[in-house]
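thread: overnight batch results

M.L. [08:02]
morning all. the overnight job finished for the chain we discussed friday. pasting input first so we're all looking at the same thing
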Amino acid sequence: DAGYSAHVAGGSDDDFDDGRGEASFTLYPKPIGLQVEYTVGRGPELDPGTKIVRTKTLYGGYAMLMARFGEPEGPYGAFTPYVRFQAYDGGRKSDANAAAIVTKELEAGLEWQVWKSVELTVAYANSQRTVNWVRQDGQLLRTQIQINY
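M.L. [08:03]
and the structure it wrote out:
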């Protein structure tokens, strides 16, 4: 929220077209893999000129390229380096004012499946987000341990 409340035209969710189409593709890494997902549609979004929530076009998705080396049962486990780009331009309907969001993010990481039941991940992301016309740039280093049972 940028310090104001938006007017919701008509005052109910029924006043907005809210529909999306989605396409996705997955090629499992053997050893190279690819995941792609794209969404396009219409939904509520805060209009910058009038500060009124209106039905607007939205679109976005991600593409991730990865490779897999080794096996979990092998002496060093399995390694999966990846790079992922995601982008979105549209409203965030879960926000009270259906905030206008533009996101561009690039992430690179490495997953190490030490054993079949244990995975370690390290990832770095460079993110650029604009929320209600306020730009936010950031960097993120993420680590994760996952235990499967």
